[in-house]
Design brief:
This protein folds into 2 domains: 45-110, wza like domain (wza like fold), CATH 3.30.1950; 113-187, Roll (Outer membrane lipoprotein wza fold like), CATH 3.10.560. Strand 8 and strand 9 form a beta hairpin. Helices cover 23% and strands 28% of the residues. It has 187 residues and is of the alpha+beta class.
Length: 187
């Protein structure tokens, strides 16, 4: 009986100490190849320039259905495409009876926002800043609350159409559209 009680106490102590350990970081899951092009999604705002056609050149936002709507050609699917691929799609649509040899460039004017929840000053939606980390995102949201776990965050990210959730260090880069959760510390 005494051995069972001791074994139970040791197991309980091991579980509680494990909960205090620094969470593991799975680099393969969240690291993005820097040579891989940025993939457009709803919430991104684009600057589309059709050379020689000032009436078609403008800012366009990708709507909730993943499309932009341009004069002459109407709705064009932008979600899931890189900027160069979208430019080629627009050129092809314009070439189909509207312009002889259109030249189109697509630039990202504003990235979709990121979201931050949990133990921060003001949780919510914020504009994405290029090159930001979790620590920068926390600063934008008013800093850590007194109860915050300050060494890691939980990020939810859409990767190749699948929603991935994982613990990352506070210095990890944030991507447009990420949801960052700052957890409460136990001690």
């Amino acid at each position: 009986m005494r051995r069972l009680f001791t074994a139970l106490c040791l197991a309980l102590a091991a579980v509680s100490v494990q909960g205090c350990a620094t969470p593991r970081y799975n680099a393969e899951m969240f690291d993005v190849d820097p040579s891989r092009p940025y993939i457009l999604a709803p919430g991104d705002r684009l600057r589309i320039i059709v050379f020689g056609q000032d009436s078609l050149s403008n800012s366009y936002s990708i709507d909730g259905s993943g499309q932009i709507t341009m004069p002459l050609i109407g709705a064009v699917k932008a979600e899931g495409a890189a900027t160069q691929a979208l430019a080629r799609t627009i050129e092809a649509r314009l070439r189909g009876g509207f312009l002889r040899d259109p030249k189109v460039t697509v630039e990202i004017e504003a990235y979709r926002p990121f979201f931050i929840l949990g133990e921060v000053g003001t949780a919510g939606q914020y504009p994405y800043v290029n090159g930001m980390t979790v620590q920068t995102a926390v600063a934008i949201a008013g800093g850590f609350s007194p109860r915050a776990a300050k060494s890691y965050a939980v990020i939810t990210r859409l990767i190749d159409g699948a929603q991935i959730v994982g613990k990352v260090p506070i210095t990890h880069p944030v991507r447009p559209g990420d949801t960052i959760s700052i957890r409460e510390r136990f001690f």
